[in-house]
Amino acid sequence: MKILRSATSATAIRPRSGRRVLVPTMGALHRGHGDLIRIAREAAGPDGEVVVSIFVNPLQFAPGADYEKYPRPEQADDEFCGNAGVDILFRPSVEEMYRSDFSVSVEEDSLANTLEGKSRPGHFRGVCTVVAKLFNILAPDAAVFGEKDFQQLAIIRRMVRDLNFPIEIIGAPTVREADGLACSSRNQYLSPMERQQAPVLQRALQEAQRLAMEGNRSTAAILNAARRMIEAAPLARIDYLEIVNSETLHPVAEASPDSLIAVAAFFGQTRLIDNLRLS
Ligand code: PAF
């Protein structure tokens, strides 16, 4: 596995034969990332190469959010990538990615205004900007993003469409722990009690899905049932719980097969997100 730290060296490794597939990450790699890498390997094919980027992107963290304390287990991540058969690991520094007078960014202006975008102003501008830069630096043919960050995936697809990046975007199903909690680098912040209660999010989403599949259409009624379940966990504090159209990400009054229920909730200081299609 090659480890590259500068954009210049990453650009210099082209040209190549076979497909290059990128898995952009912020490190603290876990089983969920392992699955993204496996999917990237399949998409790359026998002659292709898998590139993982690890960069904790300051631009997508609000002031006072967990940027400083975000886990950065470099050695464990290197080993993880080596064991997962990654061909190239791109690990740039902040100075490498952002000049001190950096002044151009990428902003999506429709899908980014709901859900995470409402709770975390500027977050998706940070995500789009860094992903656009990674696409330009690494020139992948395809890139894999997890469906746990459903809104991020939708926004990246929109960015690729609207800015004509010649890159296929592959969505990967959410990987879960045995008790249903979605795998996330932030799960390691949870205290034992918080960790015990966190799977309530997934149970509440499943209850919503069950109600919708039984023919309940009123999103208000479905959301009430899901909210009651989450509120029964004393350590959970809901940030948002919404049913939206999975294309527009705008809230809907009636659930339908293309609806998605999305939740963000705090357990102590730790903010977790999850989502589920209602079909
Ligand atoms: O999903 C993430 O880990 C990040 O938002 C991403 C896509 C790597 C951009 O920093």
Bound molecules: pantoate
Q: What's the N-to-C terminus distance?
A: 41 Å
- Name of the top-level CATH class of the largest domain: Alpha Beta
Shape, please?
Answer: globular
How are strands sequenced across the largest beta sheet?
Answer: 1-4-3-2-5-6
The topology string of helices and strands comes to EHEHEHEHHHEHEHHHEEE
What does the model show?
- The protein is α/β, with parallel strands linked by helices.
- The protein has two domains: 2-172, Rossmann fold, CATH 3.40.50; 185-277, Pantoate-beta-alanine ligase, C-terminal domain (Pantoate--beta-alanine Ligase, Chain: A,domain 2, 2-Layer Sandwich), CATH 3.30.1300.
- Helix content is 36%, strand content 20%.
- It has ten helices and nine strands.
- The protein has helices at residues 7-12, 31-44, 74-83, 94-97, 115-119, 123-138, 150-162, 192-197, 200-213, 219-231; strands at residues 2-4, 20-25, 49-54, 88-90, 142-146, 168-172, 236-245, 259-267, 270-277.
- Strands 1-4-3-2-5-6 form a six-stranded parallel β-sheet, sandwiched between helices.
- Helix 2 (31-44) links the parallel strand 2 and strand 3 (49-54).
- Helix 6 crosses helix 7 (150-162) and helix 9 (200-213) runs antiparallel to helix 10 (219-231).
- The longest helix has 16 residues, at 123-138.
- It is globular, with a radius of gyration of 19 Å.
- The N and C termini lie far apart (41 Å).
- Pantoate is lined by residues 24-26, 57, 60, 127, 130-131, 149, 152.
